[in-house]
Amino acid sequence: MSDRSAPGCRLRLDWVYGYRGHQCRNNLYYTAGKEVVYFVAGVGVVYNTREHSQRFYLGHNDDIISYVTKLRLASVGLDAKNTVCIWEWKRGKILATATGHSDRIFDICWDSFQQNRLVSCGVKHIKFWALCGNALTPKRGIFGKTGDLQTILCVASAKDDITYSGALNGDIYVWKGLNLIKTVQAAHGAGIFSMYSCEEGFATGGRDGCIRLWDVDFKPITKIDLREAEQGYKGLSIRSVCWRADRILAGTQDSEIFEEAVRSVAFSVDGSQLALGMKDGSFTVLRVRDMTEVVHIKDRKEVIHEMKFSPDGAYLAVGSNDGLVDIYAVAQRYKKVGECSKSTSFITHLDWSLDSKILQSNDGAGERLFYRMPMGKPVVSKGEVKGQRWASWSGVLGSEVSGIWPKYSNVTEINAVDANHAAAVLVTGDDLGLVKLFRFPCLRKGAKFKKYIGHSAHVTNVRWSHDLQWVLTTGGADHALFQWRFLPESVMNGGLDINIQDSHGDSNSEESDSDVSDVPELDSDIEQETQINYDRQVYKEDLPQLRQQSREKKQQVGSLKRQRGPDQGLRLQFVHGYRGYDCRNNLFYTQGGEVLYHVAAVGVVYNRQLHSQRFYLGHDDDILSLSIHPLKDYAATGQVGRDPAIHVWDIQTLKCLSLLKGFHQRGVCALDFSADGKSLVSVGVDDGHSIVVWDWKRGEKLATARGHKEKIFVVKCNPMLMDKLVTVGIKHIKFWQHAGGGLTFRRGAFRSVGRPETMMSVCYGRSEALVFSGAATGDVYIWKEPLLLKTVKAHDGPVFAMFSLDKGFVTGGKDGVVELWDDMFDRCLKTYAIKRAALSPGSKDTGKYLAVASHDSFVDIYNVLSSKRVGICKGPSSYITHIDWDTRGNTQCSHFQGQYARFKRYVGHSAQVTNVRWAHDDSTLLTVGGADTALMIWARERGGGVTGEGEGPLFRDNHPHVDSEESDDDVEEDGVSRAAPQPEKLQKNNVSKKKRLVEDLILDHVFGFRGFDCRNNLHYLNDGADIVYHTAATAIVHNLSTGTTPSIHVWDAMSKQTLSILRCPHTKAVGYVNFSATGKLLLSVGVEPEHTITVWRWQEGSKVCSKAGHPDRIFVVEFRPDSDSQFVSVGIKHVKFWTLAGGALMYKKGVVGTVEDGRMQTMLSVAFGANNLTFTGAINGDVYVWRDHYLLRVVAKAHTGPVFTMYTTLRDGLIVTGGKERPTKEGGAVKLWDQEMKRCRAFQLETGQQVECVRSVCRGKGKILVGTKDGEIIEVGEKNAASNLLLDSHARGGIWGLTTHPAKELCITASNDATIRLWDLTDKKLLNKVCVGHAAHCVSYSADGEMLAVGMKNGEFLLLLTNSLKMWAKKRDRSHAIQDIRFSPDRRLLAVGSEENTVDVYDVSTGAYKRQVFEVPSGKLVSDQAVVDRITWATWTSVLGDEVLGIWPRNADKADVNCACVSHAGLNIATGDDFGLVKLFDFPCTEKFAKHKRYLGHSAHVTNIRFSHDDKYLISTGGDDCR
After folding, report:
1. Can you give the pTM of this predicted structure?
2. Mind listing the pLDDT tens digit for each residue in 469-506?
3. CA gap 336, 334 in Å, rounded
4. CB burial class (10 A; 0-12, 13-18, 19+) of residue 1045?
5. Cis peptide leading into 876, omega within 30 of 0?
């Protein structure tokens, strides 16, 4: 065997000395079986104290610094934001993420008594987290005055919402909910690093070296001081504690003084003495039996790196950092007898010759030097050291170890080596944390090796034990000593070693360099296949962008009218072709006996009896892989693409069941279903040949892994174990195990049984560990995972295919032979030689002349009978591409009129279509593809092929398959912005005091309904007993804390409890939401430019998928009432029919076709009928009726104006529509239609005035619920058509004016919608409203409640009689808005303030944001502050003044707080601000940034706020939310 090959022996990790105490805490536990679990370096250790044995987890590749065991896993990152992640670890899936804290987090724990609650702590903070849906929401703990704000190091939860935490000063803080309720002072003398909760109570450990045990009520039980224990020492610090029954575990941060001082060690030959090299340049020799000092010598000032006793025990060589090696005579009490001084750098390694006469050294400069002993004279002659036998080999330099160095490595990368001369192997340790095993001597560069991981950082030293049975390795930063058992080659060849490490422990030289002499030449077919490049210059995903560029060019040539598309269509009838040149395992029998395969972009189902084909046309590029479901008639196909898609489809219906995307690149080359059919494994052709395990029904990735650096040909799932699979490819076979969100592997061990070969096929045997693989040499390799048992010669060329039968196997190879084998490949039962059938000769053409066009721009005419040239055509300036004859025998060329003609397109070919020809009778069209090698036959059909199976793509991602035209777009209404506009001005004024305190506020009632820019937002609950709707920030809210991330709140309409919070990918706001038929899924639509549609599993808080909806506004998206997978979206000039296929969304655009009066309109609403009917309401009043995605007919003028809303009644199929229509005898804004929308009944809404525009409808039992554009909610009886006004509100426009009656439960609001409205606070209804002609801005009652003053936006003010709201007087002296208006307490004077900064007898200016006090009636400004302080105010609505200094938040400008009102008792003040918050303060509020209570509900700025006369109610009005 070549000396570059890896050794046949192995290492197995046997023991780990060490525990990670530094920088870690809470990392020591008991298992259920009372074993001890901890970690060190990159190894998880399970230690059995009774048997003194260890088991190891070697899956990490760097330091472990934290771990925990629960169903859900919380992790905290070390990134700048200390990100908190919640994992469903079994599936490897992130449930939620959030920014943890701006400073370091030290501990996090789940609340054992509350399922979705956890607590984190760290530098000067503690946070209590709630997990709801996919939202992780924190609330900071309130330290208050109970304890100092300080760093919290550990936490533990208890019952009754109690949390205990350990502080840096040694106190224990006790929390109830968010509040600190008490402290246990001096629980420890210093910081408490660890806290553990169990059934018995709590255990704590601290920096003081003490462990304290507490009962379940945190009363002390006992104290254990480990510093006073037998093994204790000063400075001992507890980093981790665990308590189970009568056992207590403690992990310490061990002292590192001794480890830091000693740098090198060496035993004497007889083991009686131990030499220690120190960091200060000295060395000490100890007697081993009692560890007493023999001698201590210091001849050097710098660290001693290496020490070695000579083989005869006479001398000790000591190498130091200053480049010198000192030789000491052992028998003369270590007298210095020699010095080696030729090195130019520090000494790294020393080795003695077997006769003790020569010493070799390695130094930091990469020099290898030789010295004569004991004087230390340099050896100049190479002949003197040639053939020298060495007692040990620890040097990294020399021809004997040249093969250990990888490519491009530097001289310091390998830290230590040690040779086993008896077994001819060498062990190395390097900076990557790897322990490697090579053959020795290792002469040739790029030698192969076996590698072992466990150390998390650089391996500093490696040594064989004296009996060569063990290898000892030490880690640098991981502070660990590993003990490996050596398994000689004779042991390895004797049978299967059940303890062989998996992929993490053994790589079989994956990183080794290749050498031509070691690699057999690839078969020509395999070599051609490996060189195929699946990159595309233009991917199909690029086509929308290219089409947009084309559309822009088309608009520049707008004068050319486009031709109408043809009336006839095509249907794919037959495909000649099969993709075999770079694919395998892609030919199957279906359950019905049909043949399933693929070619180009077409999945083909071939019926042999009828000689007919059916097609799956969902792909848009070459299909590379195919697999069939083991239990159902389903197929999975993978294609080429930048983001290649995998389609799982029904073989019988040819419908896509799931579409999987988002991981692979370039293409998917292999697929296989698991034995239960629930999972699908795919392999990509990206650089790492990635492997993905999918839950294909849900469209979720269960696990991912890097497959191999070379191409993988086949993946095969284990038929008995669902979590195992195997892959084969170029010179490798790997056995995989599914583990959580990842895959672990073991490489096939060829040993000396067979040569590593390229594997082309693979199958599992009858037992779960038995695997058969077909090699490129024609051999079948038989494996028992992961060892090769034997090989069998099967074919004369590569074994390209292998299939498992109920009894035995079938193989196929390049030799053209199919072979039938028994269960163990012991006997070939039968062979079949495949021969091609002879083809019959074709018929001769009867034409007289032949036209031949060449690349040099000539067309030659030949006589067919005489074969003579009879003519030459010259004319084109470039090469000839096409020529045609006319019916009289003349050549001709054709041209089309106009540009960008309409067309119909059909997909099947995966690459360029190189030629098309009609059959002689025009009944069929023949097309051939270039790279896809397919010949397709298309049948011609009349009527555009609207019906007909298999036409066009069954599911296309982005493209309609009938008409290429994209509609021009227009806008129906402006987009809705949730950002609060800047307030136009503020209001301010007067004061009062006394009586009872207002302690808290509870939202009691909301007057308002959002109808002006919303639709379908009004529904019945509980059989019509309740209704649900939204206004302001109710139901769907913009998250006020983040400002940029909208969220969806799913809540119980009866209990008002939040069920789930979904943090959205939508960047601006959520424009529409809709539940699926079963209620398990939720749709959301964003209002960002892409109008993204997202599907959620809202109960889990997980996003199923997301996709750009349309470039223009989407108004409505609705699930079909009988489906969880199909829905329809409508908007500006488009209708799309969507299908949720697994984890992907696909759509088909609505096809208008040739229906009379049919053209694509802006659609505003949608409803559904039986037999897959869909109804969409258009902006012109028509209703379009669709079947599937084709327009069936148009219901003309269903309303005279836009059809804003439609509702489908599930129990009887009747449809309610609402739109814009003036009420007449025959028509109205609400209509009830039959199931097919052929007949209707109109309802006229009676609310005291005409209702012309309806934005939302819902139908209950005998009743119809109607929401109008003006904010009214009306209930209409179907039998008597009677209207009942349930709710009234202001229409669009901010509400700025608000006043409460001085003696009754009444209030008045004034709005920009030009109305004044009187509300009853007790009955919670509208009593009266009056239109004042212009926008009203402020309003005020007189002191006796008889008169009402209204300030207008145009500068006018009105006086109304309260009882009738009739005009009493009006006056206009100002041209700008009236900001505030007030009657004097005696009702004799009226103060009117405007934006003009003017003051007259009744006018008080407040527009300069400055508090001013005037005498009345003189109007004199009061400037003396002492006089102002003595004034008792009748009311207080001013936002300025010393009395209200505390209502202003930090960093606020004077426009943040819009309004204020002091209660009539004078003890509280309520404010409204630009952030939609209502706040309640104590009054007076003289300290800055005063504490307060805040209340959410308004979505934009709060414009005004007032207490009722008895302080029982507080009324607030919103600006843009109209409430």
Report:
1. 0.61
2. 889 888 877 767 888 888 887 665 554 443 444 433 44
3. 6
4. middle
5. no
